[in-house]
Amino acid sequence: MKKLFSLLSIFAATLLLGGCQTPDNNPSGDETPVPYDEGVYILCEGSYGAGNASLWFYDRDTKSLKADIFGAANDAKLGDVGQSMLLHNGDLLVVVNNSGVVYSLDASTGVVKGMIENLLSPRFIAIDPSGTKGYISQMYTNKLVVFDPRTMTLTDEVTLEGVADAEQMVIWGGKLFVAAWSNGHKIAVVDTATDKQVDLFEVGVQPYSMVLDKNGYIWVVCDGGNEWSSLPEGVEVEAPSLWRISAESHEATKLHTFTPGGYFRSRLAIDGEGDTLLFIYDAVWAVDVTSGEFPSEPLIAVEGWGQYGLDVDPTNGDIYIADAKDYVSNGAVLRYNNKGEKIDEFEVGLLPSKFVFR
Amino acid sequence: MKRLIAILLSVLATLGSAWAQGADSLRTVEVEEIVVSSARSLRDVGVQKSLISDAVLKESLSASMAEVLAQNSTIFIKSSGRATLSTASLRGTAPSHTAVSWNGVELASPMLGMVDFSMIPSYFVDGSEVYHGSTSVNVTGGGIGGAVALSTTDEAPKGLRLQYIQSLASFSTHDEYLRVSYGTERWGSSTRLLNSASENDFPYINYDKVGHPREYNKSCGYHDMHLLQEFYLNGRRGGRWSLKMWATDSSRGIPKLSVDFRDDDLTKAWQDEQSVRTVAAWRRSFGGLRVAVSGGYNYDNLHYIYQFSKGGGQVQRAVDSRSLTHHAFGVADAEWSIGNSLMLAANLKANLSMVESEDVAPLVPVGFKGRREELSSFLSARWKPLESVGLAASVREEWRDGRWSPVIPALFADVTLLEDWGLIVSSSVAKNYHHPTLSDLYFVPGGNPNLLPEEGVTFDLGVECGAERGALEWGGKVTLYGSNISNWILWTPTIKGFWTPENLAKVKSRGVESRANVAYRFAPEGRVEMNLIFAYTSSVNDTEESAGYGNQLPYVPLYSASAGAKVTLGGWELRYVWQYYSERYTSYSGTSFGGGVVDGYSLSDVALGRDFELWGVGVRAALGVNNLFDVTYQSVLSRPMPPRNYSATLEVRWGK
User: Fold this and answer.
1) ipTM of model over 0.90
2) Pick from A344, A349, B153, B444: CA 20 to 30 A from residue B572's CA?
3) Domain range spanning residue B292?
4) What is the CATH classification number for the domain harbouring B258?
5) B593: which chain A residues are within 8 Å (Cβ-Cβ)?
6) Region of residue B81 (left: phi > 0; alpha: psi -120 to 50; beta: else)
7) Into how many domains does chain B fold?
8) pTM of the model
9) What tens digit of pLDDT does each residue of B173-215 get?
């Protein structure tokens, strides 16, 4: 009987000890110190529906890496589907799509300074050069959210006519160019002074990504859709294409039609001078924006098809490729110089996709 | 809340009044626990099987089978929330690798291949057997991890019996259960009705958001109704007939992620499901020959909606998906015992499954139609060359959609070393195949009709013992196992922009399963029992060319354990259940940063119950506290789970 009670006591003690615990959101970090002043922010989307997006910082001088700087600074998770980010006046604005939130972080510390929540499906941000007004594009709605990036408060909304939703945006000369990617084939133009739509013109099917070059041209890649796209009546699936648009006149010119069956694995990137356009279409291609000629050979041959993001470090021209690998394991960042020679690579979180350089 | 407090007080008052009535009205509680058999039947030679006893199921009447299995077996239940998708992983395998049946009816959706255990009320289960690893081939094919066989009793008690259970619990939860049965020597009928509903709006501290606000589980109320009708008939020539029909009508909100910042008015998701499962069976014994034939039909209509507000009272559905499943089957069994030392068995099963799935929200609806025809045959021989030695061999052959699968062979053996102590060593080795689901094959876009079956080879070795010495009973079992699975199916993105399944991975699983129980009768009507279950599960990605090579698979805890203690005295019963899972990775990377792991947790539940008679009516009243220490935890990343919560249950039984 005594043995039985001894056993019961041990058992009870185990239960009580096991019952006392608190959650621990501290990420595994490394030695990169705060502040994050010079380096590269890397946004990892995470898996849809899992809430495991993460933000990293790579110090290009010390070659050290800090995991999950959002979690370390805020003792919280970044959210579900890290969609895009933008550096503005020392603040890092991070769009977390399936959390319906846009964070404004102190870029040096990662601490949350403000946030806009209850957004339907935020995708991208554009900030007016005045720094007093920003726009958030969303899926499922043709309404752009207008906000004040200084206070992270909503100020207005812009209803776009002739498009179902909005994706990437570019601002030039007081005009906001908005690509309607999902099942669309048009670009809307909004006057940033009045927040009224002033134009709408056609490009290829599903304008997927846009960048502005040094000559005042907007480069647009259209993925062409696929057989499961819910395209509007009269619009057919087509081969992917590369377009150049005059930001001044809105004249749109198709410069290149890609081989059908390929797939754009990254959005468009442009180097620091704004004279070389880069993107991944089965390989990394570099296009001179002045000539507009499509090269016969890619800059970098890539293996597999995990490459998910691409950008160019404006400080030194290094090319950063986000490799999502098998999409269910951690990804990696591959670094190349501007001649296409590989520098190194390092592991980051799940589905790395976006870079911001500081 | 006031209503709940009032009900709790009334239950307490009932308990008190029953105590005041004295010992005369006390009814001895029949106690059973996890069974450790000391004498192996021929049917169980070499089998690694654990039973969840009738007593455990009765104690857990208001729980779903997800909770019952999590607390009483080595199965890991991956739960996305209270009354939300809960899948099972056995021996570190995927949810689709655990075959699940109810009265012989396969419950796994032929479309997705897995079972939502939160949709199976324990009210509708009288017996539960878990077949671990290779021993699942004795009941079905495809159970690479194992099989769970759920059943209802095949008998209706004589005469008229009524049972009503009213359960009230936190978060505006209520269960109403009614069972009416009538039986004669010749025939019987049993009708069970369950109505279960909850606002499910539990509060929790949201450690995933900045500032750790206190929030409420949103948009996840549910209302489930179940009806189970059973008929039994003893034929004039010795046959036994039965007909069982289980119908479900369920509507459930899908909870939002803990990292979702959108209001319920802006986005909302829910699912409605109607299902019917029927099985008719006949069995008869001719001396040593036992034959059984059964057949049935399942219907399932699952409707999933995700909608958002467009402002001005307008809503739009981003997902409006309907999946219709029809499944018909027929089974013939024969078992021939030749003397006491030899048993031959054969089984033939035919399945026809048809699935139609479509999401009509996009302008161009996406979906697929799939159909599968299957035949499965099984032969086994079990032999006891000596009283203490059992040997068995079996082969299973399956035919699917015009193609024969490779033969599934299995060998089993056990040796009784010390009969007095119930010391038995058992072992088995088997090959098994799990076929792709119809969704894997035909989903549009991305289905891959060229997928190969997943292939597993499993070995296990177990030692068990058990004995009864006076007032003390004890037992235990330890099983070591290993399995290698190849052609593991993973969905990954393609260059076309959608996901597709491929036979990508190899998985190596090694582990230990153990359980122990002890019971001591300290008074004629007093007994104390304890049990402990522990599992170590190393299930790693063994695909060298994969980014996640060598890492523990997502959502497979390396360590899991549960323990229970129960004291009964007279009609009183005090029960304590403890459950532990170590941390789980959330991806194939095996790293912890950025939501890479879900923290380990342990939970404690306690319940106090009282059985007594009142004016000739059997009454049981019970109070329960779940998550006693108010642990904040997640089973699945970003899916909040309930804090400490309370329940009160009142059961009345009438009829002898």
Assistant:
1) no
2) B153
3) 2-654
4) 2.40.170.20
5) 27-29, 54, 67-68, 71, 349
6) left
7) 1
8) 0.87
9) 999 999 999 999 899 999 999 999 999 999 999 999 999 999 9
